[in-house]
Every structure is written in structure tokens, then in C-alpha cells.
Specification:
The chain has about 375 residues and is of the alpha+beta class. The protein has one domain: Sandwich (Jelly Rolls). α4 crosses α7. It comes from Artemisia annua (Sweet wormwood). GO terms for molecular function: dioxygenase activity; L-ascorbic acid binding; metal ion binding; oxidoreductase activity, acting on paired donors, with incorporation or reduction of molecular oxygen. This is Non-heme dioxygenase N-terminal domain-containing protein.
Length: about 375
């Protein structure tokens, strides 16, 4: 086979799909009876499928942490929560939180709003379809659509606040406008609590990560995974780690998120009212590998669409701020293993590659 011709053909197929501005949901809607053969651009390479089959599955579950009493600083309850966060961040890189303070009605409204946006008339959604990195609110299929080995079976509404925290609610689509504003306000309060717990879990003062401004520059992504006729051929999200300090995920009851733990895939089963928290690359770096940013993915579902909302906290992007391993946790036994970097530089490298490529940690490893 002529590889250059094959690549040209794939690029043409990608562009033809992208030009419809309809997303994966539009592809299904346009098919008679809603059943389609999965287009070649979404089909995973055979070697990748074979590699996953070797990994296998585990019945182990991501830790769930009850935050009841977390505000009682200095108490035994708080100490126990910190210990649970420490264990989960070191061993799993993931945990779920319950009784976190974000009202259930806010969670439900956010999921419903994201779902309604994606299930509305395609002509309305097309107004938001864009790959312009400067546009704050946009809708598309896979940010790495033209770079990954296979496209993922999902559409995403993106609220990109990397360069500006000033979000005009009128820029948000009507179906999820109010719910997004409410959710952002609530989840930012939770983020403050999580950064306190993570600071204490590193043996630092509660406000340490807050002083590093780890909560600055955020991205909210509303993912919609249409029912997939052949989920064994494609993924909802290719395996990856997150280029963030932490990510907070709200998922519906359908499920599909999996975490790579001890070389096996573990399901992150939906818990009503829970939020999933995972350590990103940037926190692994500043913690000098004490906390782990782990590989995860989302698998498809034959009969049900899935909705999830991911909130990424990246740290200061502009003006450039240097980050690196925290001096207080560098010791002779744990010498510095990363160099200093700017979030902007790290993010540029992250977004210039396919999501399914090797971890970006290698960019800054000494």
C-alpha cells in the first residue's frame, strides 16, 4: 500500500466529515434508521486493539471519599479525609467525592443542559462549530481530530477560559447557559477545598497549592457520546492523561470511564451525586511524582448515549508563570526529576499532538 496515498485519503475523509459541522450525532441522525457502519476514520488500529486485549480488566474500584465534615479543620474527620486523598492520589491518580457540597439540582441541570445542546437541531449547533483556538465557546468533534490515529466517537462543547476568565453568559448556547454559570460557580468552590486537601496530603500548608494559583485558567468540556453501533471498533475517548493540575468530572448514569490501574482497566462506576477527581500531569510534576497522573479512556455504549462534563484547572497561563517541583518536598531520597516550565509551553506541546500519543511528562523530565 502507498502510505502517502493512504494518508491523503484519510485527510480527505476527515475534512469531509469536519465540513458537515454535524458531529458524530449528526452522522447517526443522517443515517437511515440511525444505524451506520462506523466510518474508517473512527476505527482503531489493530495493534492498539490487540494491546488493550492484553491488558485485561480488573474488578477493583476507584476510591470513593465522603467529604462530610471536611470544613472542620484540625479534626480527626478532616485528617482521615486527607489520608484518603493522599492514598488515592498516590496509588490511583483518581477518586470520587460524595457529599461535596455541590447541590444535586445543579449537577442534574448541568448534565441536562449539555445533553439538550447536543440533541437539539443540528443547524443550531452548527453556529458553534469551530476549530478556532481563539474562540472561547465552540463545538466540534475531537480537538485532535487531524492528529490522532483514530477519531473518538464523541462531540464536545468547549468553554475555553485558558487566556481569559471573563466569560460572557450570552456567549453560551441557550440550552445550557444558566446551568453552566451555576455549575462553574459551585465547582470552583469545591476546587478550593480539593486543593487544600491535596496540599495537606503533600505535607504542606492548606493554602500552598492555592498560592501557586493552580486553580487559574480553566476549561469546561461538555462531552456527548452517541450510542455506538460497534463499540469494539472505536472509543469514546482514546487513552490519555490530562494536561491539568486536577480535573473534576461529572458523569451521567450510563458509565464508560475506565482508569488504567496496575496494568488493568478499572471501571469508574457512576455514583449518584458523585464527582470524579483526577490528578493531571501538572500536579504530578510539581509533586515530583508523589501524585500520579494516570491513563484513562471512555468506552462506547451500544444502546445509550452518554453525557459527561469535565472541568480542567490548568494554573496560570498568561502572563507566563514558571512551575516546577515544589522545593519543600525535594529531598536526597526524592531528588528533583522535572525541570521548570510554563503552562503555556506545556499546553502548546500537548495540543500539538494526538491525544493517544505518549505522555507529555517527557517534555519536562530531567
Amino acid at each position: 500500500m502507498d502510505i502517502s496515498n493512504s494518508n491523503d485519503d484519510r485527510t480527505k475523509q476527515l475534512k469531509a466529515f469536519d465540513d458537515t459541522k454535524s458531529g458524530v450525532k449528526g452522522l447517526l441522525d443522517a443515517a437511515a434508521g440511525g444505524v451506520v457502519e462506523i466510518p474508517q476514520i473512527f476505527i482503531r488500529p489493530p495493534e492498539e486493539v490487540a494491546e488493550d486485549l492484553e491488558l485485561g480488566r480488573t474488578s477493583l474500584r476507584v476510591p470513593a471519599i465522603d467529604l462530610t465534615g471536611v470544613g472542620d479543620k484540625g479534626s480527626c474527620t478532616r485528617e482521615k479525609i486527607v489520608e484518603q486523598v493522599k492514598h488515592a492520589s498516590e496509588k490511583w491518580g483518581f477518586f470520587q467525592v460524595v457529599n461535596h457540597g455541590v447541590p444535586m439540582k445543579v449537577l442534574d441541570a448541568m448534565l441536562n443542559g449539555a445533553r439538550e445542546f447536543n440533541e437539539q437541531d443540528v443547524e443550531v449547533k452548527k453556529e458553534y462549530y469551530s476549530r478556532d483556538p481563539e474562540r472561547m465557546v465552540k463545538f466540534n468533534t475531537n480537538y485532535d481530530f487531524y492528529m490522532s490515529k483514530s477519531a473518538s466517537w464523541r462531540d464536545t462543547l468547549i468553554v475555553d477560559m485558558l487566556n481569559s476568565n471573563h466569560l460572557d453568559p450570552q456567549d453560551l448556547p441557550a440550552p445550557c447557559r444558566n446551568s453552566t454559570v451555576d455549575y462553574l460557580n459551585q465547582v470552583m468552590e469545591l476546587a478550593d477545598t480539593l486543593f487544600e486537601l491535596l496540599s495537606e496530603a503533600l505535607g504542606l500548608e492548606p493554602n500552598y497549592l492555592k498560592q501557586l494559583e493552580c486553580e487559574k485558567s480553566q476549561t469546561l468540556t461538555c462531552h456527548y457520546y452517541p450510542a455506538c453501533p460497534k463499540p469494539d471498533q472505536t472509543l469514546g475517548v482514546n487513552k490519555h492523561t490530562d494536561a491539568s493540575f486536577i480535573s473534576i468530572l461529572l458523569q451521567d448514569e450510563v458509565g464508560g470511564l475506565q482508569v488504567l490501574h496496575q496494568n488493568q482497566w478499572a471501571d469508574v462506576e457512576p455514583i449518584p451525586g458523585a464527582l470524579v477527581v483526577n490528578i493531571g500531569d501538572l500536579l504530578q510534576i510539581v509533586s515530583n511524582d508523589k501524585f500520579k497522573s494516570v491513563i484513562h479512556r471512555a468506552v462506547g455504549n451500544v444502546t445509550q448515549a452518554r453525557t459527561s462534563v469535565a472541568f480542567f484547572l490548568h494554573g496560570v497561563v498568561t502572563p507566563p508563570k514558571m512551575y516546577g517541583p515544589i522545593e519543600k518536598i525535594i529531598t536526597k531520597e526524592s531528588p528533583r526529576i522535572y525541570r521548570e516550565f510554563t503552562v503555556k509551553d506545556y499546553m502548546m506541546k500537548f495540543y500539538s499532538r494526538g491525544l493517544d500519543e505518549k505522555t507529555g511528562l517527557n517534555y519536562v523530565r530531567i
